[in-house]
Specification:
By secondary structure, the chain is α+β, with helices and mostly antiparallel strands. The protein is built from 4 helices and 13 strands. The chain has a 13-stranded mixed sheet, covered by helices on one side. The protein starts with a helix and ends in a 7-residue tail after the last strand. The N terminus is likely disordered. This is DUF2092 domain-containing protein.
Length: 241
């Protein structure tokens, strides 16, 4: 979750909590560590993700937007994302050198030079162009350290059922933000759902639910290379100022 955490922390001045202010449940930390360790050992993975994201509309009310995403990754430098929802039908291909962003709705695409690994690529492309990568946040190796550094309270809330699956429920909170995650009670400790509540901006919610995990599948390199349709238009985009 590092990208989401840092974006909100910087804007609200949350960085810098001391350890004396932190109340940490070791069971919660162990669960997060197990999940992060398993994810860090994956060589490849595919999964589906359904997201719900609050955005301020013209009436200055939180309007909820929904999307579905199919995500495929091969470590350390291959990624493909296909997203459909209120923000359109679009896809990303990343082959370790070039990232291509394609809009099915507008039939245009842009290709960008990118760093040679997924973690650095996500940071670089998001910082420069504002392109989001749903679900990639959980693959940050610093997840547990980020939670401990930036939240006052970290607590295990017990067993919960999500979509008929038994999960461990963990919550981290401070006065600016709440982060909750439900982790599958299985051998792989895969994440099932996460919820972020931004307390300082109208309690906006960002939620994601994972499904159809496929652990260490064989994925051909060709699927991470973009081949534009004959009629597709190559465009350019400006970096954020």
């Amino acid at each position: 979750m590092k990208k989401l955490f840092i974006l909100i922390f910087i804007s609200s001045g949350v960085l810098g909590y001391s350890q004396e202010m932190t109340k940490v449940d070791t069971v919660a930390v162990n669960l997060l560590s197990k999940m992060s360790t398993v994810i860090g050992e994956l060589t490849s993975v595919t999964f589906n993700l359904e997201t719900a994201n609050d955005k301020m509309n013209d009436l200055r009310e939180n309007e909820r937007h929904f999307s579905t995403h199919k995500i495929q990754m091969v470590g350390p430098d291959k990624m493909a994302v296909h997203s459909k929802g209120d923000s359109g039908n679009k896809a990303i291909w990343y082959n370790g050198e070039i990232l291509t962003y394609y809009s099915f709705d507008e039939n245009n695409y842009v290709s960008l030079e990118a760093p040679d690994n997924i973690i650095d690529m996500v940071d670089d492309i998001n910082n420069r162009f504002g392109i989001d990568f749903p679900g990639a946040d959980i693959f940050y190796p610093s997840l547990v350290d980020d939670v401990l550094e930036n939240f006052e309270f970290v607590k295990y809330l017990g067993f919960k059922t999500v979509d008929e699956e038994e999960c461990f429920h963990v919550m981290a909170s401070n006065k600016h933000m709440t982060f909750q995650i439900w982790i599958n009670n299985n051998a792989m400790f895969t994440p099932k759902r996460f919820l972020i509540i931004d307390k300082e901006n109208g309690h906006k919610h960002y939620q994601g639910t994972f499904s159809n995990w496929n652990i260490n599948p064989i994925l051909p390199e060709s699927m991470f290379n973009f081949r534009p349709p004959t009629s597709a238009k190559l465009i350019s985009i400006l970096a954020k100022s």
